[in-house]
């Protein structure tokens, strides 16, 4: 694809390159991405159906898990269908508005997911360290308010980031990425991009820094409480429940931070490696999260089996 030297104020569309250096492999790379997307959709929809059909699961932990599944569906669905069209049919063009919307959904809902993971850590802290007051401190109706607060914070912080794109003049329409990642689009601008860079780094560091510190404190307190339990069986059960949550947290933060900071500072990282990892970051956690919770959480497993039995009985 040819880069254009003309300037565009709000160009009508951009052209996505996919994974630079791996263009010849796009067709074959699409198959594992399609399989992972199908598993992500099936797994997260299954979690939503199980929790909805089981009144005993209408508790904070499982309601938060439903929020996590919904966010994962939004993030991967805002990216993977367009990525598959690009890889299989070379549908590289994306309208400016669609690009801005995709960026908003990816970055905005990633910030919301970080907030939900923080609430989940708070939920586990109350359940383990304050069990006698758990029901009064975190009733099911308060979960919706905490989820709304996480959504308001995440989407509110990312709205200006998307709006800042409109003020830029672009020297090229070719985005060296598989989707409209913020810095990949900003690098196409001709003028001063410092406000975009400063706001993007500040917002991401504020969200991830605040949430990760609070999550670390919560789990330090949980660990201290668990080690104080006299029963080995109780310790093992608690570690199993918290282990699945910690796995989801690491799966979310580790590749996300790597992708975010290498896009800005990691010039030594080969571009195709960085973009491939960024693509996987948007699909692997949504695919694995329901599997992790399904394997580790007996109530989810049992609910899924009952749901399957009811479905087979009706057929």
Automatic annotation (TrEMBL):
Keyword S-adenosyl-L-methionine: no
Subcellular location field: Cell membrane; Membrane
Transmembrane segments annotated in the record for this chain: 27-50, 62-88, 94-122, 198-227, 239-261, 273-295
Top-rank taxon, per record: Eukaryota
SUPFAM superfamilies assigned: Family A G protein-coupled receptor-like
GO molecular function: G protein-coupled receptor activity; olfactory receptor activity
Domain G-protein coupled receptors family 1 profile residues, every copy: 43-293
A Pfam family reported for this protein in Swiss-Prot or TrEMBL: 7tm_4
Membrane topology: Multi-pass membrane protein
Keywords assigned: Cell membrane, G-protein coupled receptor, Membrane, Olfaction, Receptor, Sensory transduction, Transducer, Transmembrane, Transmembrane helix
Alphabetical list of InterPro entries matching this protein: GPCR_Rhodpsn, GPCR_Rhodpsn_7TM, Olfact_rcpt, OR51/52/56-like
GO cellular component term, pick one: plasma membrane
Similarity section: Belongs to the G-protein coupled receptor 1 family.
Function per UniProt: Odorant receptor.
Name listed for the protein in its UniProt record: Olfactory receptor
């Amino acid at each position: 694809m040819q880069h254009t030297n003309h300037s565009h104020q709000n160009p009508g569309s951009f052209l996505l390159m996919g994974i630079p250096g791996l263009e010849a492999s796009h067709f074959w790379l699409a198959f594992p991405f399609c399989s992972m997307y199908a598993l992500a959709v099936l797994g997260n929809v299954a979690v939503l159906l199980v929790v909805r059909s089981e009144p005993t699961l209408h508790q904070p932990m499982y309601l938060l898990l439903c929020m996590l599944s919904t966010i994962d569906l939004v993030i991967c669905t805002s990216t993977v269908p367009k990525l598959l069209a690009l890889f299989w049919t070379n549908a590289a063009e994306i309208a400016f508005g669609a690009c801005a919307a995709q960026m908003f959904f990816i970055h905005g809902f990633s910030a919301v997911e970080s907030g939900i993971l923080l609430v989940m850590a708070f939920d586990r802290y109350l359940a383990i360290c304050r069990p006698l007051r758990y029901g009064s401190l975190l009733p099911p109706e308060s979960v919706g308010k905490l989820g709304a607060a996480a959504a308001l914070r995440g989407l509110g912080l990312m709205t200006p980031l998307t709006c800042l794109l409109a003020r830029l003049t672009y020297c090229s329409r070719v985005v060296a990425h598989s989707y409209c990642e913020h810095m990949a689009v900003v690098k196409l601008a001709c003028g001063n991009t410092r406000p975009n860079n400063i706001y993007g780094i500040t917002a991401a560091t504020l969200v991830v820094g605040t949430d990760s510190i609070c999550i670390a404190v919560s789990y330090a307190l949980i660990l201290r409480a668990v080690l104080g339990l006299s029963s080995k069986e109780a310790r093992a059960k608690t570690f199993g429940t918290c282990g699945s949550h910690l796995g989801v947290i690491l799966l979310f933060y580790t590749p996300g931070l790597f992708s975010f900071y290498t896009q800005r500072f990691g010039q030594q990282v080969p571009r195709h490696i960085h973009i491939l990892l960024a693509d996987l970051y948007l699909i692997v956690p949504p695919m694995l999260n329901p599997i992790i919770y399904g394997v580790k959480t007996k109530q989810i497993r049992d609910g899924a089996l009952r749901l399957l039995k009811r479905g087979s009985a009706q057929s």
